[in-house]
Every structure is written in C-alpha cells, then in structure tokens.
Design a protein that fits this description.
The structure is a homodimer. By secondary structure, chain A is an alpha/beta fold. The first copy, chain A, has two domains: about 240 residues, nicotinate phosphoribosyltransferase; about 160 residues, TIM Barrel (Alpha-Beta Barrel), CATH 3.20.20. Chain A is about 35% helix and about 20% strand. The first copy, chain A, is built from 15 helices and 19 strands. In chain A, strand 12 and strand 13 form a beta hairpin. The relative contact order of chain A is 0.16. The interface between A and B is large, with 101 and 101 residues.
Chain lengths: ~425, ~425
C-alpha cells in the first residue's frame, strides 16, 4: 500500500514562493534550512526531541499525485509551469539532525535540511508540525517519568486531543519512558504495549458493583485492575478482594484526593491480606501531582490531559529558517528576532564524570575537534532523499533519553521554573 | 475510495469492557451516553461546539476490517468471541447533539448517543478526541474573531500543531469566522479559502530585497502582499511601493511592536500615495493582542500559535458518560465528581429582544413546552446509524455562531476572565 501523500500538509505560501522562484531561477540555488527554537517553554530546563522518525517518513511521502495537483489547479494556487515541476517532485537532498530522545536547548540546531530552495522550502510546514507537536509532548512526558521515579506510567490522554495527535503522543510518551498506552492505534502502528481494563460505565451498566467486578474477573482473570471509586471506595476495595481474592492485580482510583485515598486503600488491602495488590491512580495528574505522590503507596499512574497538552506547553516554538544560500550565510535582521546565519553543528561537552557542561554551537558543517568527553549532537538522517542505513530505533532512542537525563546537572531535573540545564554557547568561526 | 477505519482510535479498555459485557449479556442493554463538560476553561464565558461533522464521519467509518482484527488478535487485546462480534460491528443507534457553531456552557448536553452498550461504548474515545480538540480551537477562534471586530483574519498555525490537528483547526477557525487559512489540505478537504504569498526565506534567497519583491510581483501581480520586515521596515515599505506601485495589495509586518510599526507604515504608505494598500500583521498574536490593536491602522491579522493551541485551553474537558441503562438513570456518586444521571435535553431561553437568558437542562428526552423566544439546542444527527437528511453545512454553522454570539448578554463577549455568559439551570423532573 502506498502511504498517503503529505504534500498538502503545507502552507499556501510555500507554493507561491516556489512559483516565483521557479520563474526567476533562484529556485535551484543550493540552500540550507535549519530547525531550532529560540527559547524553551517558560521555565523549562530542557527539551526532548520527538518526531524525527515521523519527519523522515513525511519527507519520503511528500509527492504531488493526481489528487494534489488537481486541487492546486482547481483552486488556482499556482500555474501550469509550477504544477508540472511539482508532478516530478521528490526530495533529493540531505538531512542531519538530533535523534529522538536527544535533549535540546535554545539554539540547538535540531534539524538541517540541505537541497535546492525549491525542494527544501516545501517541507517547512510538515517538518515543523511534527517536530513542534511531538517534541512538546516528549518534553512533558520526560518530566512526568522523572517525577514518577521508576513507577509504572500509563498514557491515557487520547480522548483529550485530536485523534491523530493522540497516536503521535502515545508514541513519544513511550519514547520518554511511559510503560504503556491506552491507544490501540499506537499499539498497531508502533508496536507500543497497550493497556486498559474498565471505566465507570462498566460498573454503572451492571445491576450491582459486585456483578460488574465478577464479570470483569471472569473475563480478564484476577490479575486485572478493578476500578473501585464508582460508589464508595472503602466498600469498593472490600468488594474487589471479596470477588477477586487477595491475588487481585490492582485497584484503580480515579477521583478525589488520591494521595489520602491511596494510603487508606493500602492499609485496607494489607488488612485483607492483599499485600501484592497494586494501587494505580489517575485523574488530572501532571508532573507536579505525580511528584507530590512520591511518598504515597502508589504503584502506577495513569496520565491523560496534561500529557497530550504538553503540560502547559502544547507546542515547542521551533522555526525552520533559511540559513545558507549557495554557501553564503543569510539571516533576517530587522527588529528583535535576529537569527544567526549559516549552517551550524553542535557539540555537547561533558565533565569526565559524564555530567553535561555546555551546548556549543559551531558555524559550518565540519566537525570541530572533540574532547574525550564531548560528542556531536546531530547524526546523518537522509542522504540524497533516502534514509541512511541503521537509523536508531524507538527502543534505542528510549534508552538515549534515559542516559541523557542522567547526564544533566542535578538542578536540570528540577520541576520548578528555572534556566536551561546547560547554557548554549555560540563558538566563533 | 473507502475511508480509513477509525476503529482503533479507541482506548484499550473499551474493548475489554465489551468482552466482559458480551460474556455476561449486559452488552445488549440499551444505553444512553452523554458528552458534556463540567466547566469552561478558566475564566471563559462561553464555549463553541466544533467537530460534530467529523464525529459523524468517524462513527460511520468505525468498523473492524481485516487489519484491525488482525492487530487485536495478535496483541491479544480480546478473544475469539469478541473478535467475531467486532467483525460485524456497525453503529446502528441514534445521535442527537448541539450543531457546530452552537454555544455551550457547563452541563450542556452536547451529544447524546443511544444504542446498545456494546455499540455505544466503543465510540467514547474517538467522539471525545474530536469534540475536545475541535471545540477548544473553535472557542479560541471565536474570541479572536470577536476581538478583530470585522477585520480580515487569516489562520496560519499549521506549523505549530500536529499535521492533522492543523487541518481540523483550519476548519473550525473558518467556522468561527476566520477569512482564510494557510493550510492547503483544509482547502482541499473542506473547500475553505486558502491564502499566502511569501516568507522571509524568499527575500533571503534573493541577492537583494528588490530582486525578491520584483520576482514576487512579476509572479503574483501587484495585488499581492509584500513582507517588508526582513531588513529595515521603512526601507522595505518604500521599496515595496517602488516595485509594485501604489496599487500594491498589502504589506505584512511579522515582528516587533506591530502596533507602532503599523501606524508608521500607514503614514508612509499614505505619503507615497498608496492609500489603498492594506496592512496585515502577524507574529504571536492572541485575542488580547488583537483587541489591543483595534485602534491601530491594521487591516488584517495572521494568527498561528495561539489559535491552534486554543489560546491557553488546548482541550475542552468534555467527558462521555453512561447516563441511562434500559431506561434507568445511572450516575457515579463517589467523591466530588458527581454526575447527573438520565438522558437530558436543553432549552436556551431568551428575552423578547433576543438576548439569551439561561441554559435550562431538562431530564428526559421529550421536548418541554417552549416559550416564543426559546429554542431547543440539540438537533437530531443520526438515526439508526445513518446521518439524518439536510444536516446543516459548514456555512450554515458559521452563520449560526455569528448569530449566537450576538445573542449573548454584552458581558458575555468580554475577553477578561469571568463567569459563563448565561447560567445553566437544571430543571426538576
């Protein structure tokens, strides 16, 4: 099956720029575009790159088939000559960038796209859509995982965001260390473990709570998770153990002061001999609520709304800027939004202990001399429009993030507002 | 072409509930589920319903084909019997709800889905994903349009959100009164006008700003919009008129203190005889920034980030609750999240002048007696799993919202934080 074309996930102006540039010949100038962000969301100490795999897929599926060309002609977006050029469009350039799971900071050169102006300018919108969304969710997810301190995390935010954002969010939540997702499509598309048992509706459907629990245990076995807060929680917990026995897998509490309720439930479970029955809490949890529950007997968290909305930062503010034309650095220079022209490459420097020190951004694309504890942050992603071999997998990148977070100075992991965990330094030519 | 199945845009637990309920026979009980929100986002005075058309489409395309069944079997989500039942799944129930463009308030019964438990429970996630996302964007868009007070609004936020949320956002921005979108896919899929001319990259690509302007005018004609803030704005405006003549369509300013810059640009344009050249501003505008520019000579706004992120409220907090089982009202009743059981219907009451007074929520589904200035807010959407005839179009709903906003008490249109514009009143049985 041919994947759907991504070519109309594009802003109108990319095509009008193309039309003008084809007409005057500048369309064929060799260019470099760079994706980066000028700042992290308010008070955040690091960002986590998400979506790179999806970006590469979108670039490969960026083509103008009959249907796309027909619409552009009908709507009069561009003329005959441009349509003809678009019919043969395929991206043949090179892409380098930060892999998923890598940390980023203000000015980090996250993605560098090189090719003719024509082929690279068209990718702006779809590249940014994916990076801005997926990195926002990955960044929030990493803070939550870090707050959970090793406890099980289940992503269950699908219902709070667009049905396709939901799938992408589940993917990067897993990247960031979530254990499972409720989203079945993410399970199918990306092989992520999915989880789920029952909602309040299931209890309400039945004549009694006991009938609901009996039915669930008969169907899913005693290792299931019973939702105990439809009516009275104490009675719910009692009933859960009565029905499933002390080998019950877990109970879930979805409302109220979950810290207090978890403590009471733990005592009650223990008194009933259900020492191994776990307690999962859900309901409006964000990284701060998760951290606040650290001292409570909570074994797992279900997180929804705050995850899929980036916990206050639903987008990442990344831009895709033309930085080089035929080898000449270019940059906008009016008012406050000044940019640095020219292709860049970054080195993350570390102490011998492994602690990150600086993000050093170098002009040019030749790798500078690296110290023994330094490393380049970009890797090659595409050459001549094709993905390079042996790109890291989702599992590789999950591990990458885990390691990268350990490398941050300890203040960098604090949830409170602060400065970026390491400074970005711009090296001179 | 068969539309893609939406059946895995579903949380795992909907299928495990189904499996248990099929096993114990409760799956076939006749149920009503209701989508509503307990509160509006912090300080908002009204919500705007968005996404209903997409919800109906998703319900129609909710089916388990080979690919979906294969995944569910492979992943062991449910067993053989349930898979067999799913293979024949089609929604055959009834849906009533608020049409798009209708205003809503806390407790408004936005969507009522009636059918067997089995057929209705499976729709929870996809229905909520769409309503929560699209209504959040529609609600933010309506505030912006109202702040712009009749000036032209262009939606250009695609790059700041997931590539599919972008298309849905463009659609509801248009619903809310935006003039056009930059998103080409929204143009193709929904027939929404698209717009765009050039970015800073186009100027930087050329050897001089003059060469860029000349190229654009040669390609798009003098009625185009020239982006004048790549280098020096005053020089940019001068050059724009030199190149295009005083019949230039518009200039765009994308950075800096756009109010001050617009005033200066207007004077400069007038002094150059370009009295008809319009001024479009863009760059981090939200409803407050738009309102603050009311006194400035701005003819149009380009809005991106704040629109697609719901201007601080990226989701709507809607839930999908089981409210009735075989004619018996049901409701969760532990802790603070108490819900009202039973199917509901709402009447918007008005003064004879047309000003809305209350949202009166009645139990049951028989229409109460209506006063001459009252109206029911729900309309029939689906009967027996098929869309009813003559559903309102996007254009109809655009007009509906325009009229609904006029009906609000004047405080209801204030951008500042406050109470819902009209109170929700729950009538007794």
């Amino acid at each position: 099956m041919t994947a759907a074309s991504t070519a109309l996930r594009t802003d109108h102006y990319e095509l009008t720029m193309l039309a003008s540039a084809l007409r005057d010949g500048t369309a064929h100038r060799h260019c470099a575009f760079e994706a980066f962000t000028r700042r992290l969301p308010d008070g955040r100490r690091y960002g986590v790159v998400g979506g790179v795999e999806r970006v590469l897929e979108a670039i490969e599926n960026f083509r103008f088939d009959e249907a796309e060309l027909h619409h552009l002609a009908e709507a009069g977006v561009v003329g005959e000559d441009t349509l003809e050029w678009l019919a043969g469009y395929r991206f043949h350039g090179d892409v380098d960038g930060y892999p998923e799971g890598e940390l980023y900071f203000p000015g980090s050169p996250l993605l560098t796209v090189r090719g003719t102006f024509a082929e690279a300018v068209l990718l702006e919108t779809v590249v940014l859509s994916i990076l801005n969304h997926d990195s926002a969710i990955a960044s929030a997810a990493a803070r939550m995982v870090s707050a959970a301190n090793g406890r099980r995390m289940i992503e269950m935010g699908s219902r709070r965001t667009h049905e396709e954002s939901a799938v992408a969010s589940a993917r990067v939540a897993y990247l960031a260390g979530f254990t499972a997702t409720s989203n079945l499509e993410a399970g199918r598309r990306y092989g992520i473990p999915t989880a789920g048992t029952a909602a309040h509706a299931f209890t309400l459907l039945h004549d009694t709570e006991r009938a609901a629990f009996e039915s669930q245990v008969a169907s899913l076995g005693p290792n299931t998770t019973l939702l105990v807060d439809t009516y009275d929680i104490t009675r719910g917990v009692e009933l859960a153990i009565e029905v499933a026995g002390p080998q019950l897998g877990a109970i879930r509490i979805d409302s109220g002061d979950v810290g207090v309720l978890a403590r009471r439930a733990r005592e009650q479970l223990d008194s009933l001999g259900a020492f191994g029955t776990k307690i999962v809490v859900s309901g409006d949890l964000d990284e701060h609520a998760i951290a606040a529950l650290r001292a409570e007997p909570v074994d797992g968290y279900g997180v929804g709304t705050s995850l899929v909305t980036g916990s206050g930062a639903p987008t990442s503010g990344m831009v895709y800027k033309l930085v080089e034309v035929d080898g000449r650095p270019v940059a906008k220079r009016s008012t406050h939004k000044t940019s640095r022209g020219g292709r860049k490459i970054a080195v993350r420097t570390h102490k011998p202990t492994g602690t990150a020190v600086e993000e050093v951004v170098h002009p040019g694309d030749a790798a500078p001399e690296l110290g023994p504890d330094d490393r380049l942050t970009q890797i090659p992603l595409m050459r001549g429009g094709k993905r390079v071999d042996d790109l890291p997998t989702l599992e590789d990148n999950r591990l990458r993030l885990k390691k990268a977070l350990v490398s941050l100075p300890w203040e960098g992991l604090k949830l409170s507002h602060g400065e970026p965990a390491i400074p970005t330094v711009f090296a001179e030519q």
